[in-house]
Amino acid sequence: PDCSVNEIKDPRLYMAVGGTSLSVVSLFCNSLIAIVLMRSKHTHFFFFALLAVSDTFLSVMYGPVIAMEIIKDVFREVWLNRIFWSYMPSLLTACNISMTFSTFLIILATTERFMITIKSDRLRWFRTHRGLLAGCALFLACLLKGGMFWEFVMLPNDPCRGTLLERELALTNLSLTVSYGKVFKFYLRNICTVLFPFIFLIFLNLYIVITLRKQQRAAALFRFATSRHKIDTRTMTNTKLQVRSATRLTVLIVCSFLVSNALNVAFTVVEFWDMDLLMMTIIFQMYEYGTDFVSVMYILVCATRLLVYVACNEEIRDEVHAFLCGRRYNRKGFMKQSNSNSKGASELDSIALTIARRLISSDLTETATMNDEESSDPHDGSNGKTVVIANGYTHCNTDDV
Questions:
Q1: Tell me, what's the pLDDT at 396?
Q2: How far apart are the C-alpha atoms of 149 and 168, rounded to whole Å?
Q3: What is the pLDDT of residues 168-220, one digit of tens each?
Q4: How far apart are CA 62 and CA 60, in angstroms?
Q5: Is residue 361 scored above 70 in pLDDT?
Q6: Interval 134-152 mean pLDDT
Q7: Which residues form the G-protein coupled receptors family 1 profile domain (predicted)?
Q8: Which residue from 197, 202, 172 is spatially nearest to 185, judged by alpha carbons?
Q9: Which of 121, 241, 360, 389 could bridge 231 with an S-S bond, Cβ 3.0-4.6 Å?
Q10: What's residue 4's pLDDT?
């Protein structure tokens, strides 16, 4: 038998190198996002914090799982091939679970933003059960994709021993059954993890955008000072602006997800329609390039996610700046200390001023009593005493008091 491996084409090699470079950038960006959002008090970014953790894991796994599959064929080393197939089944399963979990987290974040937009009565329940919902999403992802570990097996290929084809990939008996291999794996899994999330997020995203535009037009028509998602300048509160910013952030995250998964959805539809068509020589080569491109697009979206967060949301931008530099900037551009330091300083100043006021009041009472009982110096031109607080916060004259 022919035990040679086809030569790797340049496009696949370039995508492997480019994807690995992007995975390094994505690893740094998503690690930063995860640390910042996990340690902040902004609980409304809970799903995005978990999304950053999941994307960090996928960034680490891109090199060993996706790039290594191409690199081992480029260098044609048997020991690389053996190392790759020793960990590939478990890591591939973990990557698929993580990708599905990320998809469900985006659905949960968009659903919460949808409830805020329509002012749903169930919003309070949804917010108080974020952890439970995320746990259910992880369980569902494991249920749908965890079985991949038992769906294929590596069998020895004795005629090609000592070459890259010394092992061959084969389906297990579980995958060959109708109930699991066709109904569950092919139909149920693809519908729940690819087709349904894609269609659901499209319609939900469009509804949120249309609703926001209607609210803004109504506010402009009736000359409201603020719309439902704008800042109230009269009360100097930024709560509504934060809601609008978080909504815009969610919309962009969903759009990036839809763009990166569009080709994957197209492949899934073709697989439903005619799998034999993809196995044709010319189309299979395009199919192979396309699957690699889908992986690169997903890592590209993960790598640019920090830029989207910082550009669209001031809360996250302040938290990132505070984490990297130890200081925050307010909207006017003035630098301000972190909340813990400012809070501690304000409390200390308040206590000091309170004590100082009490001392001033007691001193003034004693001074007034002594002035009534004792005669004042006729050659002294001043009628009062000067009171100075040593800490520099208060300088006052008894006459003014």
A1: 44
A2: 16
A3: 888 899 888 989 988 998 889 999 999 999 999 999 999 988 888 887 777 66
A4: 6
A5: no
A6: 95
A7: 19-309
A8: 172
A9: 241
A10: 74
Tokens of 14: 């370039």
Average pLDDT for 1-23 = 80
| CA torsion angle 107 109 111 114 (round to 10) | -140
- Three-state SS sequence of the chain: CCCCCCCCCHHHHHHHHHHHHHHHHHHHHHHHHHHHHHHCCCHHHHHHHHHHHHHHHHHHHHHHHHHHHHHHHHHCCHHHHHHHHHHHHHHHHHHHHHHHHHHHHHHHHHHHHHHHHHCCCCHHHHHHCHHHHHHHHHHHHHHHHHHHHHCEEEEECHHHCCCCCCEEEEECHHHHCHHHHHHHHHHHHHHHHHHHHHHHHHHHHHHHHHHHHHHHHHHHHCCCCCCCCCCECCCCECHHHHHHHHHHHHHHHHHHHHHHHHHHHHHHHHHHHCHHHHCCHHHHHHHHHHHHHHHHHHHHHHHCHHHHHHHHCHHHHHHHHHHHHCCEECCCCCEECCHHHHHHHHHHHHHHHHHHHHHHHHHHHHHHHHHHHCCCCCCCCCCCCEEECCCCCCEEECCCC
Amino acid symbol at 155: L
Q: CA 98, CA 185: separation in Å to the nearest integer? A: 17
The model's pTM: 0.75
Q: What is the dihedral of CA 234, 236, 239, 241, to 10 degrees?
A: 70
What would the pLDDT profile of 42-64 be if each residue is shown by its tens digit? 677 899 999 999 999 999 999 99
CA distance 192 to 103: 10
pLDDT at 376 over 70: no
